[in-house]
Amino acid sequence: MKTPAASPLGVALEELARLVGGEVQGVCEELLVGITGIREAQKGQITFLTNPKYAKDLETTQASAVIVGSQIPQTSKPLLITSNPSLAYARIAQFFAPPLSHPLGISPLAHVGEDCRIGEMVSIYPFVCLGNRVEIENGATIYPGVYVGDSVRIGKDSIVYPNVSILSGTIIGQRVIIHSGTVIGSDGFGFAQDGMTHVKIPQGGIVQIDDDCEIGANNTIDRATMGKTWIKTGVKTDNLVHVAHNVVVGEHSLLIAQVGISGSVTLGRGVVLAGQVGVAGHITIGDGVMVGGKSGVAKSIPAGEVVSGITTMPHQTFLRTRFLIQRLPEMAKQIRDLEDRVRLLEAELKRKKEDHGNK
C-alpha cells in the first residue's frame, strides 16, 4: 500500500482511508491537515471515536471527519470506517507527525573514546560521553547527557534521549528508542550470604535489546550474571519498569508502568504485564499471557492464560473472589445468625430427648 505524501495543504479523507484500509461514509469537503481529540478538533482536522462515552461529542465537535469502528454511530459527520480505529488513529497520527530534524555530526563538546566507529548521518549532541570501541551505526541520534560505555553497539536509526546510561558491552538493535533517565547494563542484584554479610557476585554478562523496541523513561535493565539479559524484537516498556539479570522478554511483549521482573524469568511472545505487576524469579510465563494490574506472579503460567490477583489465579476466579470480598461483612453476619439458629435447634433437640427419656 502506497503511503500518500504529506502536504502542508492537507490530504483528502479518501487518501487517509486508503492509507489505513478503511472506507468513507459521507462527503468531506475540506483537506485534512492534522488529527486531535474529539473535543479539541477544529475544521480541517480529523478526530477519532474509540470510547462510547464520547459519542455525545460527535455532533458538537468541529472536526471535519471522524474515525470510527464497525459500530457506526448516527451522525451527519463524514466518517472514516475501519475495523480497528485505534490502529487507524496511530497510522494517521504518524502520517501527520512532523519529521524530527537533528544537527548531523558529532558535537565538539562530545567526548569520543578510542577506536570508536561512527556511521553516517548520525547526530551526537553536546555532553555525550562515548567510551572506547563504541560502534554507532548510520542514522542514530544520541541526545545530550548520554553515557555510552566501552564496547557498546547502537544500531541504525536508533534514538537515545537525554541522560540515558548504557553501560559496557550492551548491544542495542536498529530503530530502538530509549527514553530519558533509563539505565541499561547496571549490575544485577547478586549477592552470596556469608553469615550476616553479603558478598557481591560479579555480573559479567551483558544486555541485548533487539530491533524495534521502545524503552520508557527511568527503566532499569540489569546486565546478566553470565550470558545476557535479552529484550527481544518489538518489545515496548512503559516508564519505571525494572528488568533484572538474565531475564528474557519475548517478542512484542508489553511491560506497563512499575512492572518489576526478578532474575532469570523467561517471558514468551506477546506477553502483557499490566501496571505494578511483580514477577518472582526463575519462572516462565508462556506466550500470550496477560497479567492484570498489581498482580503477584509466584509460579510459572502456561501460554494463553489471563490471570490476576496476589498471588495470581484464573482471571474469572479473581473477579468472583473480588465480588465476594465486598460481601464479607454481610456474609459474616449471616453466618453468625445461622450459628445462633443451629445452637437453638441443638438445645431444643437436646431438651426434647431429655423429656422423652424422663417419660
Descriptive overview:
There is one protein chain. The protein folds into three domains: 13-96, Udp-n-acetylmuramoylalanyl-d-glutamate--2,6- Diaminopimelate Ligase, Chain: A, domain 1, CATH 3.40.1390.10; 105-316, Hexapeptide repeat proteins (UDP N-Acetylglucosamine Acyltransferase, domain 1); 327-359. It has four helices and 38 strands. It has a ten-stranded parallel sheet, with no helix packed on it. The N and C termini lie far apart (99 Å). The model has no long low-confidence stretch (mean pLDDT 94).
> How big a fraction of the residues is strand?
25-35%
| N-end to C-end Cα span | 99 Å
Sketch the major β-sheet. Answer: 10 strands, parallel
Query: How many strands in all?
Result: 38
Please tally the helical runs, counting DSSP H or I stretches of 4 or more residues. 4
- What are the segments in which pLDDT stays under 50 over at least 5 consecutive residues? none
Work out the radius of gyration. Answer: 29 Å
Helix percentage range: 10-25%
In order across it, which strands form the biggest sheet? Answer: 7-10-13-16-19-24-27-30-33-36
The quaternary organization reads as single chain
- Output the CATH homologous superfamily of the largest domain: Hexapeptide repeat proteins
CATH secondary-structure class of the largest domain: Mainly Beta
* Helix/sheet category: alpha/beta
**What count of structural domains?**
3
**pLDDT average, as an integer?**
94
Shape: flat
The CATH topology of the largest domain turns out to be UDP N-Acetylglucosamine Acyltransferase, domain 1
Q: Tell me what the CATH architecture of the largest domain is.
A: 3 Solenoid
